[in-house]
Amino acid sequence: MAASLTGRCDCGAVTITVPSLPDEINACPCDYCRRAGARWGYYKAGSAGISGETATYRRAAKVADFHRCPTCGILTHWDGNGVTPHMGVNMSNFDQEALSGIPVVEDP
């Protein structure tokens, strides 16, 4: 099993620890993700450790709650609002050298 990896928002108020590196990173082309510039690693719901307060935005379709740092505004992760068994973690908040070699895909 790969070692866990910890990332943080710009100001450091929110930290995210994932249990392992993702197999791939999704550059989701939906309007919201494209605008946010997020790159998602997917994990089983609840498997990433989140510390620090986040502000939440629920998309109109009500299938995802997007979380961001209320101080610096950086998007940290999304959860499936009980609808999906997985969550997305914004891999842009992690050491990019640690992610080198992981393929980036565009999959809606």
What this model shows, in words?
- The longest helix is centred in the first third of the chain and has 6 residues, at 31-36.
- The strands form three sheets. A five-stranded antiparallel sheet has the order 4-9-8-7-6, with no helix packed on it. It has a three-stranded antiparallel sheet with strand order 1-2-5, with no helix packed on it.
- The protein has a single domain (5-99), classed as Metal Binding Protein, Guanine Nucleotide Exchange Factor, Chain A (Beta Complex).
- A hairpin with a 6-residue loop joins strand 6 and strand 7 (65-68).
- By secondary structure, the protein is mainly beta.
- It has one helix spanning 31-36; strands at 5-8, 15-18, 25-26, 40-44, 49-51, 55-58, 65-68, 75-79, 86-90, 104-105.
- It is globular.
Which CATH class?
Answer: Mainly Beta
What is the CA-CA span between the terminal residues? Answer: 28 Å
Name the structural class.
mainly beta
- Which descriptor suits the 3D outline? globular
Q: What is the helix content?
A: under 10%
Q: What's the CATH architecture?
A: Beta Complex
Describe the sheet with the most strands. 5 strands, antiparallel
Strand order of the largest sheet: 4-9-8-7-6
Order of helices and strands: EEEHEEEEEEE
Instruction: Give the uncertain stretches in residue-range form.
Output: none
Structurally, how many domains make up the residues?
A: 1
Counted beta strands? 10
Q: State mean pLDDT (0 to 100 scale).
A: 93
What is the CATH third-level topology name? Metal Binding Protein, Guanine Nucleotide Exchange Factor, Chain A
Number of helices: 1
